[in-house]
Amino acid sequence: MPQISKRILKPEVKKDLLDSLSYTIKELKTKKDVDSFLSSALTDTERIMVAKRVLTAFLLRNNVEEKKIGDTLKLTPSTITRLKMWIDLRREGFDLVFNKLEKRSRENIAKQIFYKVLNYSIKAAFGRIPKPF
């Protein structure tokens, strides 16, 4: 677990600090920029910890068995239970991200279907018998 100072920040300083972090992340435009920032700001252990938390939330949301999650991500049942409680308390943020990812996935699937239909139509228009998809 990452270490944090036992000296408590004033609430307004804490708010400004977290607002600055949110703004910084929001301004990153490319995956390369995000990777660079995360590599600079977090240790490998911290990045893996965050990635496991996000992926566990995603897998739980998609009804993947806890045992399979544990085996794949090398998490104990108690860790998964703790993450499940953590996720349930903070569902709004996870849902926001996953809804965007799912929308992008649906759009990509729609594009793939469109291009297959377009390719099929072009071949058919020139008298070729295309393979069915």
Automatic annotation (TrEMBL):
The top of its lineage is: Bacteria, Candidatus Woeseibacteriota
Q: Which domain of life is it from?
A: Bacteria
Q: According to the UniProt entry, where is the signal peptide? A: none
GO molecular-function term, one example from the UniProt record: DNA-binding transcription factor activity
Q: Which organism is it from?
A: Candidatus Woesebacteria bacterium GW2011_GWA2_40_7b
Q: Which InterPro entries match?
A: Trp_repress (IPR000831), Trp_repressor/repl_initiator (IPR010921), TrpR-like_sf (IPR038116)
Its recorded name reads TrpR like protein, YerC/YecD
